[in-house]
Design a protein that fits this description.
The complex is a heterodimer of chains A (about 525) and B (about 350). By secondary structure, chain A is α/β, with parallel strands linked by helices. Chain A has 18 helices and 22 strands. The chains are: A alpha/beta (about 525), B mainly alpha (about 350). Chains A and B meet through β1, β2, α2, α11 and α12 of A and α9, α10 and α14 of B. Chain B: It is a multi-pass membrane protein.
């Protein structure tokens, strides 16, 4: 039997080699004043995982939105199994079996998981929605994907990671030939990621072609077959994933040579404790009996799965999540239950993970966004009146320091790439004298070049004696950038790992320890 | 999303220039130009200094209400009770003033001051209720201000029995209604002062910036250490304050306290703001544009009067303009999105 499958697969491979599953010739997309894509050739074979690689703003998103039918090219041609096609809409693309999972979710928050899964393609019986069949098929899709979701759950009650799962599951409701995934693992736990990769493996065996956007080198290694690099809207090169080194890719992507992504950790001995948390439990019990200590001049990592409480603990300390019991001391002072406003004034800043929804005013300028947390003090104001020229000068200097690109501080934030939006948020940490700064997932959706400068920025802050907490789901970040780490599991601090015990195996062991037991 | 690195400037043909201007300035300048041209053609009396001063005087009340409405819109809400606030302050103010004046006919100044204080306090009480509902109980601004509009209107009718309140001191109307200084009507000075103070507050103080922050991203504002609850509460109190001042000025003009004035204010003030580019999603809008927006609506009403367009039809035009402005805002957003892609 296995032999039979093998021959079928071989045949498929051969026919695929003859005419690729999906191919573009000289795709160009221009907007008034901007060329987003400039004559890009791209080829997807059946059964391969083809990674699109490039900096934020290189044109990856534009290309996949064209492939998915969400956007129409200004020039160029798309071929599907050798025949020219025009994709007027997402619907056209779906009919060919091309489905995309974008970073921006297309879910109706007030509807349930199953209603979202079959939105626009509801099964009917005699003109009425066939709820039983929808439930059945929703269950079988979720089951096949190994996603722990109930079909009747409302989407707005789900975490971001769970919403991402629903979004992925949506692509599976009809027959697939091409699946486009835009950074699908950005908010998935490693367990869910494993599942997704397993699934991708099954799909490619069935001859489905996968277009995959990621910034994570480890993922490219694990599932990538070929990599196409884009830069400034232009096609640069297509390389085999197996033979390409990280340095090669970064060079192709940026057009220049970048040293190691992580800076060297040459921090002096930690100073006095800045944050002391004792037995903290939040009202909603996302954090239970957590105790951590962070001292001046050290970078402490908070590792764990999404929803393990690592983020919620610091939000509770900051005053954004209500505390049921326990104590929080900042520089020896009891600050339990204080508002963010008082904590910021006391020198404690929390920079949230979700820039778009919790961090930035997207339609306001860079200047206003950077200055927001420090408008009550010099040089931004004398407490009553704003000093607008000093504000502009300070923010200009910060933009320069962080290499904001383009360095236009009056532009609204939504006109910048993800990496630059992140820089705008990071700049806030320099507008006041902070003793403790919490970075929650500071590099999600940020390209490698910008990531290196963000790491350098964080280490630089620690060198000046600021206590840093780095909350991250990206293991290499925890391993290479922190001097000590706490690992969270289901709301509890599972363990504390000192620098010499900070290895991948050790951290991972505590991610799952009790789950396997 | 994608690149703006490979910027290829397209040739500056007139249509493209217009499009860029539209994206930058919004619909208002275009509407103003069109309105001035149309009404000048329709009536010889339109483009005269005398008439334009008339437009200014007539627009003052809407202008004052609109700058308050703008604050509510900035924070991502709106206030449908501005009309009621105006009416209630008119009624309460007039009753207090006439009662005091009847008791102490010699103390005209004190009667006017006490009456204004009473009227504005009555208006503020509606704002306080709105603020408590929206800021502390998280009631949607739509429901809260709609409910308060009914409550306020009912109270105003109940207090007066639906009959206008007479017996105001003559000096009140003479000064605040019909007074002139250097050829400019007194209400214009009041409006100018309010606009100036609000301008300084919005653009020169941290708290002013916080209105934009709360509407721009409530969660981000809260995590940035901004007192979002206090800011929201303050928004509705301020909005009511402006409506109440407009109510007292209008009372001076018509020389009576009336429960029926201001019913068109919610629509007109929101229209003035939206035409001026204030976003219904919050966080975007400039005070100077709102002043122009209110003037524009005054201009259109005046022009239609001169062109002898029936008042019922004027209402149709106003509603259509509001919808047009919202559509234009949507188109503009689409252009902005396409420009940044």
């Amino acid at each position: 039997m296995s032999k039979k499958i093998a021959t079928v697969e071989e045949e498929e491979m051969q026919s695929a080699a003859a005419s690729p599953l999906l191919q573009t010739f000289a795709i160009t997309k221009t907007y008034p004043g901007v060329t987003a894509l400039d004559g890009v050739d791209f080829e997807l074979r059946s059964g391969e995982v083809h990674v699109l690689f490039g900096e934020n703003g290189a044109g990856k998103s534009t290309l996949i939105s064209i492939l998915a039918g969400a956007n129409q090219p200004s020039a160029g041609q798309i071929f599907y199994r050798g025949a020219p096609v025009t994709l007027h809409s997402v619907h056209d693309a779906r009919d060919l079996g091309i489905s995309a999972v974008f970073q921006e979710f297309s879910l109706i928050p007030q509807m349930t998981v199953e209603e979202n899964l079959f939105l626009g393609a509801e099964h009917t019986r005699g003109g009425f929605v066939d709820r039983a069949r929808i439930r059945r098929e929703a269950l079988s899709i979720l089951d096949e994907l190994g996603f722990a979701l109930r079909p009747e759950q409302r989407v707005d009650r789900l975490t971001r990671a769970e919403q991402q799962m629903v979004e992925i599951a949506k692509a599976f409701r009809s027959e697939l030939s091409v699946l486009i995934l835009d950074e699908p693992t950005a908010s998935l736990t490693s367990y869910e990621t494993d599942h997704l990769f397993e699934l991708i493996g099954q799909l490619t065996k069935r001859g489905v072609g996968i277009v995959y956007i990621t910034h994570r080198m480890a993922e490219i290694r694990r599932i990538g077959d070929r990599i196409t690099v884009l830069r400034d809207g232009r096609y640069i090169d297509t390389v085999e994933a197996r033979s390409a080194s990280e340095d090669d890719l970064v060079r192709l992507m940026t057009g220049r040579v970048i040293g190691g992504v992580f800076p060297t950790l040459d921090l002096p001995k930690p100073g006095a404790p800045v944050l002391e948390v004792r037995g903290l439990t939040t009202s909603d019990e996302t954090v239970v009996d957590a105790s951590v200590t962070v001292s001046a001049g050290e970078i402490v990592g908070m590792a764990g799965l999404v929803g393990s409480g690592k983020s919620e603990l610091l939000q509770a300390c900051f005053g954004a999540v209500p505390i049921a019991s326990g104590s929080v001391r900042l520089k020896g002072q009891d600050v339990t239950g204080n508002s963010p406003r008082r904590n910021i004034r006391a020198g404690f800043l929390y920079l949230p993970a979700d820039r778009r929804n919790e961090g930035l005013m997207m339609m306001r300028s860079v200047r206003e966004n950077v200055a927001l947390t420090a408008l009550d003090i010099l040089p931004f104001s004398n407490g009553h009146l704003l000093h607008r020229s000093a504000e502009a000068a300070t923010v200009t200097a910060l933009a320069e320091k962080l290499h904001l690109s383009p360095p236009r501080i009056e532009r609204s934030v939504d006109q910048f790439s993800g990496g630059n939006q992140q820089k705008v948020m990071l700049a806030r940490s320099l507008t006041r004298a902070y003793d403790l700064i919490v970075f929650d997932e500071p590099t999600v959706g940020v390209d490698v070049g910008t990531r290196a400068s963000i790491y350098e920025f964080i280490v630089e802050l620690a060198r000046t004696g600021t206590a840093i907490i780095l909350i991250s789901s990206d293991l290499p970040e925890i391993l290479n950038l922190t001097t000590r780490a706490y690992v969270f599991y289901r709301g509890r601090v599972q363990t504390e790992l000192q620098a010499d015990h900070l290895t991948e195996e050790n951290v991972l062991a505590h991610f799952f320890e009790r789950e396997t037991a | 999303m994608a690149s703006n690195t490979t910027a290829a400037r397209t040739a500056g043909n007139p249509a493209d220039v217009l499009k860029r201007l539209f994206v930058k300035l919004g619909i208002l300048p275009f509407l103003l130009v069109i309105a001035v041209i149309v009404f000048t053609l329709m009536s010889d009396n339109f483009l005269t200094p005398r008439n334009l001063m008339n437009v200014l005087r007539q627009s003052v009340y809407l202008m004052i209400v609109s700058i308050g409405q703008m604050l509510a819109l900035l924070t991502g809400g709106f206030d449908l009770s501005v009309g009621t606030t105006l009416a209630l302050s008119s009624v309460v103010g007039a009753m207090a003033m006439s009662a005091f004046y009847a008791a102490f006919p010699d103390m005209v100044g004190l009667a006017i001051a006490l009456g204004c204080l009473a009227g504005i306090s009555a208006g503020l009480s509606i704002g306080v209720m709105n603020g408590i509902g929206v800021a502390f109980f998280k009631v949607s601004p739509f429901m809260m201000s709609l409910g308060m509009a009914s409550v306020g209107f009912g109270v105003a009718l109940y207090l007066t029995g639906g009959v206008p309140v007479y017996g105001l001191p003559v000096a009140f109307g003479d000064v605040f209604g019909f007074g002139m200084l250097f050829g400019i009507p007194a209400p214009v000075y009041v409006a100018a002062l309010l606009v100036l103070v609000l301008y300084l507050f919005l653009y020169r103080t941290p708290q002013g910036r916080y209105f934009y922050a709360v509407g721009g991203n409530l969660k981000a504002a809260s995590l940035s250490g901004i007192n979002t609850t206090g800011t929201l509460f303050f928004t509705y109190v301020l909005c009511a304050f402006f409506a109440a001042v407009a109510g007292m000025l209008l009372t001076a003009r018509i020389d009576t306290g009336e429960a029926n004035i201001g019913s068109s204010m919610p629509l007109e003030s929101i229209a003035a703001c939206v035409i001026a580019g204030v976003s219904l999603r919050g966080g975007v809008g400039r005070l100077e544009n709102v002043v122009l927006g209110a003037l524009f609506i005054g201009l259109v009403q005046n022009g239609m009067n001169l062109a002898r367009i029936e008042s019922y039809l004027q209402t149709v035009v106003l509603g259509a303009l509001l919808i047009l402005a919202v559509i234009a805002d949507q188109i503009r957003l689409r252009y902005v999105a396409s420009l940044k892609d």
